[in-house]
Amino acid sequence: MSDESTTGRKSILQLRQLTKSFGNFTAVDRVDLDIAEGEFFTIVGPSGSGKTTLLRMLTGMETPSSGDILLHGERINDLPANRRPTCMVFQSLALFPHRTVGQNIEFPLKIRGVDAASRKKRALQLLEQLRLPETYYSKNVTKCSGGERQRVALARALAYNPEILFFDEPLSAIDYKLRKTLEKELKDIHRETGKTFIYITHSLEEAMVMSDRIGVMRAGHLVQVGTPNEIYTAPRSKFVSEFIGDVNVIAVQTQADGQLHAAEFGTSFVPPRLPNGFTSGHLVVRPEFLRFLDRPDSAINCLEGRLYNEYALGSRIQYQVRVGEHVFIVEKLRQQAFGGQRDDAVLIGWDAKDSILVAE
Amino acid sequence: MSLRKFAAGPLCALPIGLFLLIGFAAPLLAVIGFSFMPPRTFGLFLNPTLVNYIEIVDSTSYISFLWSLALAAVTVAILAVICYPVAYGMARIFGKWSMLVTLLFTIPLFVSENVRLYGWVLFFIKNGVLLGTLKSVFGIEADSWLFTTGIILWGMVYVYLPFMLFPMTLGVAMVPDQIREAALDLGATRWQVFREVELPLSMPGIMIGFLLSFVLAVGAITEAKVLGGQRVIPIIHDIEIAFTYAQNWPLGAALAVLLMLVVGFLVLLVLRRFDLDAILGRR
Ligand SMILES: Nc1ncnc2c1ncn2[C@@H]1O[C@H](COP(=O)(O)OP(=O)(O)O)[C@@H](O)[C@H]1O
Ligand SMILES: [Mg+2]
To answer: By the 8 A CB rule, do A193 and A163 touch?
Structure first.
């Protein structure tokens, strides 16, 4: 890897074979990553995949078992949390319940010995920047609503004036509508401050909305890093493709004539462009690329099944089609709804170019 | 049907309310009543009088009051210094060993206080475990520390330690790890984390430990009797004598009422200063 990341900006944080083990268990396994200055980088992965452990090493609350963390090229493995120019917004927010909103925000300044007047001035600035009323300065922090506490936690972190801000699923306990608002605000704050944000979430949707780049974690490994578009259109594994949302995955093997054999259905499919050396893996077809066909079409891949269920998903309708034991998901826009009845025999198919072949 | 007129809450609270009335309020009221009866009488409905209180003010009882309060205050202070590190260790460092420490501190509670204190007498007495060993092994002759104020404090600290330690441990354990980490992450040194976050947030437990051990220590009597050899007369001793040898219940009752007032006042003073709810962030 080079010093320049994909965004062309200077890299601020580099992880080299970063590993953390608890006894025999490896929570974070040889992670390599370059974060660019000013980037909004999101790490996604299911619960227990090691996201928090990775972040805790970056903040200095956990010591790596092996590997290195480089900040501006300097190794900071052993720099304690209180001397790193980084700051974390916790999942629990970790606000100080015995302090007012103002005192919470001023905490890092007080620690540094900033005088009371300048502290207050800065706290009021931050309240305004985070769209909290000035009167909140002396409000009891435990009296604030979930969204307000979120903003107070962010204001407190900004008061520290860190180079990198870390976020550990701060929005996971917040209801959908408010979460959407806060996601936008967070993105705005990122733009206004120009700081590097490293964000953790288990929701790829959240990651897609906010991030410049996304890293997908699975069982301690960083399995894919890329822009939201790259992750969406070119997942490199079954895991990543399934993590994005509902997809159809078929186990396949190459056969002599260059087609893909799907043992489950006893049939073969025309592949998209075959990667070099591909022998077996999975064929991924997004639900919106599946079509209902009137009659078999030799130009595209077809399967015969039974309409099993139908769900309304707002602007789209999702159909479940059973082919043997396998349930396929087909999605259509509401205005292009499929007229079939439950248990009707149906024919579904897709263009080879609309499918993705992944090795794992 | 007429029961419907009452709200469910007061109705449900009725049994426990009656129980408290009989078990708690009645004896208290009896003591208060007795304190206004003429000296050396045994009725509760004679002509009320303030004679007992006047007698106490004119007497030297204040010395016993002061001894009790001073001994309790010093005990609490010593306990605070001893217990905080242990509580911190139990809550945050010892891990699975803290169970063992808890047992070590609780098992003695199964033995009666008197027996334990007589154990200390045997330990400290001239030619006892300590001095006897010193004498026979090292040939050192020392005066026994028994019957000194110091040894009374030793006994009190020993007896009331669990009452400080356990609430304190709870208090320290109540501080969430993430809050401590957040403070550290925001640049605080270990000392600043302690002063700004850990200490204030564990204050409820610490205060409860203070109050519990203080109130119990003010009521201490056996330590002064057994270890102190009546060198110091705590107020409880005066009260006991009034009720027993002197057969002057009204005087004993008046002393008890005064003690309750003094302790109650001090406790209220502390509770006003440290609003437990506010510290806990409930308001
Ligand atoms: N201090 C620890 N001791 C032992 N195991 C831990 C510790 N911290 C985390 N783990 C384990 O490491 C794994 C990853 O945890 P975590 O980083 O919290 O995952 P995530 O944040 O992705 O949900 C989990 O299986 C968890 O049980
Ligand atoms: Mg986590």
So the answer is: no
Strand order in the sheet with A40-44: A86-89, A164-168, A196-201, A40-44, A213-218, A221-226
The answer to whether the complex's ipTM is over 0.90 is no
Question: By the 8 A CB rule, do A16 and A68 touch?
Answer: yes
CB-CB neighbors (< 8 A) of A90 in chain B: 178, 181-182
**Residue B19 vs residues A329, B30, B248, B260, B270: alpha-carbon distances, Å:** 67, 16, 29, 22, 29
Angle A55-A60-A66 from CA coordinates, rounded to 5°: 80
Proportion of chain B above pLDDT 70, given as a percent: 95
- Angle (nearest 5°) at CA A155 between A150 and A157: 100
Q: Is A82 on the interface with B (CB under 8 A)?
A: yes
A64–chain B nearest CA distance, Å: 17
The pLDDT tens digits of the residues spanning B149-159 come to: 999 999 999 99
Where are the alpha helices (H) located in B125-176, listed in sequence order? 129-133, 149-173
CATH of domain A246-358: 2.40.50.100
pLDDT-based confidence at B283, cuts 50/70/90?
A: very low
What is the value of pTM for the model shown?
A: 0.83
**CB distance B185–A112 less than 8 Å?**
no
Query: What domains lie within chain B, and their CATH numbers?
Result: 61-248 (1.10.3720.10)
Q: Token pair for residue A273?
A: 């462009």
Measure CB to CB from residue A59 to each of B185, B188, B196 and give the nearest one: B185
Mean pLDDT for B46-60 is: 92
Pick the CATH number of A11-233 from 3.20.20.70, 3.30.450.40, 3.40.50.300, 3.40.190.10: 3.40.50.300
Contact A150, A170 (CB under 8 A): yes
Question: A124 — phi, psi (to 5°)?
Answer: -65, -40
Q: What is the mean pLDDT of chain A?
A: 92
| Encoded tokens for A201 | 């979430």
How close is the Cα of A171 to the center of ligand 2, in Å? Answer: 12
Confidence of residue A103 (pLDDT cuts 50, 70, 90): very high
List residues of chain B with CB under 8 Å from any CB of chain A.
Answer: 176, 178-179, 181-189, 192, 196-197, 200-201, 278-283
Determine the Cα–Cα distance for residues B152 and A185; give it in Å rounded to an integer.
65
Backbone φ, ψ for residue A161 (5° rounding): 55, 55
pLDDT in tens, A110-139: 999 999 999 999 999 999 999 999 999 999
DSSP states along A23-84: TTEEEEEEEEEEEETT-EEEEE--TTSSHHHHHHHHHTSS--SEEEEEETTEE-TT--GGGS
